[in-house]
Amino acid sequence: MRSLVFDLALGFLIGVAWVVCVGGAYAAFIYAYPFGVHFAVGAAVAGLTPGFLLVVSLEGVKLFRDIHKEQKTQTTLLEKLIEKISNHRS
After folding, report:
1. Domain count, the chain
2. C-beta atoms surrounding 25 within 10 Å
3. Residue 90's pLDDT is what?
4. Hey, what's the torsion of the CAs at 63, 67, 70, 76, to 10 degrees?
5. The pTM is what?
6. Which pick of 13, 70, 77, 89 has the fewest CB atoms within 10 Å?
7. Which of 29, 54, 22, 55 is nearest to 44 (CA)?
8. What pLDDT is attached to residue 3?
9. What's the pLDDT at 89?
10. DSSP string, 6-57
């Protein structure tokens, strides 16, 4: 149950991070547009960066969590296999 809640919260936060990413780029572009298109594009990239870093970090947490789950499953299977082999040799 705890794992499900954490996964749901993590998915929600990743969605929020994407909204921050797109919203920051849009807002920076709109506010900088009166100073020129080139400046506005640069401002949009600058506005995109914090949200994108948040997305990447949260996706990294999700990836490491998935790797940890898979390693736990593999460890359990290997322990069962070792037990089966040791019982067979006895």
Report:
1. 1
2. 20
3. 64
4. -150
5. 0.79
6. 89
7. 29
8. 82
9. 75
10. HHHHHHHHHHHHHHHHHHHHHHHHHHHGGG-HHHHHHHHHHHHHHHHHHHHH
Sign of CA dihedral 6, 11, 16, 18: positive
Q: What is the pLDDT along the chain (90 residues), one digit of tens a residue?
A: 778 898 899 999 999 999 999 999 999 999 999 999 999 999 999 999 999 999 999 999 999 999 999 999 999 999 999 998 888 776
The length of the chain is 90
Residue from 69, 55, 68 nearest 11 by CA: 55
- 87's enclosing H/E stretch is helix 37-89
- Residue 22 near residue 51, CB atoms below 8 Å: yes
Domain ranges, residue 72: 2-89
